């Protein structure tokens, strides 16, 4: 058991380095050979991030309130993961995919790495340089750098989402575009619902 | 070629040809050239693309980009 967890940890670190350097090749390996144990590390990082975000966003230390907030965020994040994977699985079935649910879970799980990166860095910047930004030279300079960082992470996320559909559902370009055309409006509605419920301002997708 | 190398080659070949390659008619060579940059160390092209997008946003919105950043920073 301990050995399996340790091996999964090494593979997870190798795959994270891989999706940074060689995303295409690494994703093919993740989807076909990846172990579900590796997702435990992503889950742990998400749980740790949500705990940090809960504390950062709430200035008063009230254990009951913080715990409640944390449980709500954690459940919503888990629910979002299931919704996204379920949605892609349904679309895959509609478009007659020959992929597997396991491959989809692995692929989408690793696509949370850029999401986590953005949220972690945004939280840290919230502590170091809390908003609002000014329209002075320094404010604009920071805004430009922050937006470039956000756009890079967004493009990285799009590449990993594309590779998830490509390898997990085994679709060609046309079907991938069709999949996104169906999924994005639904996820948009889901995100608005999450916002209205006061759970996420920016969805943890 | 030794047996082990050949087996490794066949395994790799099967892995690579598992999915049919993408084609875009006459645009296929350009597509392949672009995608090759994204397959290995895509950071150069991603940073370049992001700079273009953000400069475009700045030209379009001016100092209002600070409002977007303030919203994003509060959004986690």
What order do the helices and strands come in, and which of them pair?
The complex is a heterodimer of chains A (205) and B (76).
Chain A: H1 2-21, H2 23-33, H3 38-57, H4 63-94, H5 101-110, H6 112-128, H7 137-168, H8 173-196
Helix pairs in contact in A: 1-2, 2-5, 2-7, 3-4, 3-6, 4-5, 4-8, 5-7, 6-7
Chain B: H1 3-16, H2 28-39, H3 43-61, H4 65-73
Strand content of chain B: under 5%
pLDDT averaged residue by residue of chain B: 90
- SS elements, strand count of chain A: 0
The major pleated sheet of chain B works out as:
none
| Rounded mean pLDDT score of chain A | 93
Described by the principal axes of the CA atoms, the overall outline of chain A is globular
Q: Strand portion of chain A, in percent? A: under 5%
Oligomer: heterodimer
Residue share in helices of chain A? Answer: over 70%
Write a concise keyword list for the protein shown above.
heterodimer; A: 205 residues; mainly alpha; 8 helices; globular; B: 76 residues; 2 domains; 4 helices; 71% helix; 0% strand; elongated
